[in-house]
Amino acid sequence: MNNIKETHNHGKEVVISIKGLYKSFDDNHVLQGIDFDLHKGENVIVLGRSGSGKSVLIKIIAGLMKPDKGIVKVLGKDVHKLNKKELIELRLKIGFLFQHSALYDSMTVRENLEFPMRRNIRDISEDKIDEAVKDVLDAVGLAETSDQMPSELSGGQQKRIGIARMLIMKPEVILYDEPTAGLDPLTSYEINDLINEVQKRYKTSSVIITHDLTCAKKTGDRLLMLIDGKFLRQGDFDEVFDTDDERVKGFYDYNFIE
Amino acid sequence: MDTTSNQPAKYFISKGIDEFFIGIYDISRFIGQFFKEAATPPFEYQEVVKQCYKVGYKSLSLITLTAFITGIVFTDHSRPALADFGATSWLPSMIGIAIIKALAPLITALICAGKVGSQLGAELGSMKVTEQIDAMEVSAIDPYKYLVVTRVLATTFMVPILTLYSAFIGLLGSFLDVHGKDQTSLTVFIHDAFFKIGYAEITSTLVRSILFGFTIGIIGCYKGFTTTEGTEGVGKAANSSVVIIMFLVFIEEMVIVKFFNPLYMQ
Ligand SMILES: Nc1ncnc2c1ncn2[C@@H]1O[C@H](COP(=O)(O)OP(=O)(O)OP(=O)(O)O)[C@@H](O)[C@H]1O
Ligand SMILES: [Mg+2]
Predict the structure, then answer these.
(1) A176 contacts chain B (CB < 8 A)
(2) Residues of B with CB below 8 A from A98's CB?
(3) Is A27's Cβ below 8 Å from some Cβ in B?
(4) 3-state secondary structure of A48
(5) Which strand (E) or helix (H) includes residue B46?
(6) Are strands A43-48 and A69-74 parallel, antiparallel or unpaired?
(7) Contacts of residue B5 in chain A, CB cutoff 8 Å?
(8) CA-to-CA distance for A236 and A44, rounded, in angstroms?
(9) Residue at B25 is within a domain
(10) Looking at the domain covering A2-100+110-257, what would its CATH class be?
């Protein structure tokens, strides 16, 4: 249980900083005071039950939802105070993997990948696009699917194309929403390796949401446990699970069949 | 940390009425955004052309069939009434007025509501619930500009063209009927059909169909963009797009014919 990756965060640049974050939907108080920092080059895992607000949290980080209260800074910019142009600039540096991939279903895999490039980089040459597409498809190991439609891919392949589409803009910060959910163990291993490789190769910092403790252990430098709208526990893998709190232990027991 | 004092939501008048006015406010903002975004670059010419093609391609066959049959049937039904006065020679003139001023814009708008409006609601609705619209947004692409502006421009541009086309096909159907029964020649038919049609009439028809086209695009997109509740919501979005568009088309028709046309037509 000691193969958790080493953490050295002291003195490192902060890429995401959240202070006093609250979010409710009517009477459903989802986030109730979140504070956290993500450091450069770090993979942070967010664990939590279904409906605990993990997806809401990263949607707020990406500026897709507005918080009720609190400050969210990404790469030093206050996400919810930016004007449209500044937000576009910031978003080019953020990669977002959606829980259900969210591939554009009217476009082929290749068009999905090209789309953010063509839209965001004016007068880009076809050679550059081809090269980038080939690059990310190789990175996720799905070069042969480029002319298929997303509906013809398996769930795991869709996830990987989702990762490829996000990588093509070379983001500095990546938000993964359940990268291994619904995948078989072998595919999950591959995705975990892919996440680690992306971290190394592109020097990214990531927030990874998951229920999957193997994924957490393999890819995470630090774990945060979202319970009742707050990060009740944080630390490395062993620290987080060294507790008698049933809500935390339950996670562990289920994943490792003890 | 005060999270328990949240009272249950209160309504200003009642739930239904409040939601109605909030809906009107939302749609107005959605429309306002259209004019703002449509006027600022970058412009998505290619996508507009693609959407125009889709609008035309989707509705052409149905419009052709409906307009042709309407032309024949309407002529047939009108004949006895005029025959009573021995005035069947007035038939082309009456048909010209009916088709160009009233039937063509309405038939076209209603068919496009069913074919295009519902498709927009369903297409954007499913993109919304599968988070494809969010995905565009986080990729720094403005989904309103890319999806809504292009589609609304396409319907606003194409519905008037389809209206002229359906008027042509309707008159063709009518001519075949008149020619078959009364041996009226084509030149006489054209002369008579356009006898009472001037610039003002054509303008009124075009203005209405531009408005209908805009309504079809904006309501379909609005319903799609505001879809919630997963796949069930997509069906609802498609369905309510059609219902609202049809309702608005008739209201707009009435308002323009009753209140605006008299201003410049005697
Ligand atoms: N747009 C929304 N409107 C209203 N309520 C919402 C909305 N989005 C999320 N919620 C609510 O917020 C809560 C947290 O949702 P969220 O999707 O963040 O859960 P999650 O932790 O990601 O769960 P899962 O592991 O199942 O994905 C849920 O109770 C959900 O009903
Ligand atoms: Mg989620």
Answers:
(1) no
(2) 131, 134-135
(3) yes
(4) strand
(5) helix B45-83
(6) unpaired
(7) none
(8) 10
(9) no
(10) alpha beta
Please report, for residues A23, B115, B149, B152, B156, the alpha-carbon distance to residue B214 in angstroms, rounded to integers and kept in the order given. Answer: 37, 15, 11, 6, 5
Tens-digit pLDDT profile for residues B80-130: 888 888 887 788 888 888 899 889 999 999 999 999 999 999 999 999 999
- Give kind and range of the element (H or E) at residue A35: strand A28-39
- What total number of domains does chain B contain? 1
State the SS3 of B220-261. HHHHHHCCCCHHHHHHHHHHHHHHHHHHHHHHHHHHHHHHHH
Residue appearing with tokens 């504070």 = A35
Residue B21 counted as domain residue: no
Please report whether residue B250 resides in a domain.
yes
How far is B3 from A27, CA to CA, in rounded Å?
A: 9
- Cα separation, B175 vs A169, in Å, equals 60
Environment class of B163 (CB within 10 Å of its CB; exposed 0-12, middle 13-18, buried 19+): buried
Answer yes or no: is B217 within a domain: yes
Local structure of residue B5 (DSSP, 8 states): -
Give the largest Cα separation in chain A, rounded.
Answer: 58
- The reply to whether residue B138 touches residue A96, judged by beta carbons under 8 angstroms, is yes
CA-CA-CA-CA torsion for B163, B167, B170, B174, nearest 10 degrees? 170
ipTM strictly over 0.90? no
Q: Structure pTM?
A: 0.86
**B175 lies in which domain range?**
48-265
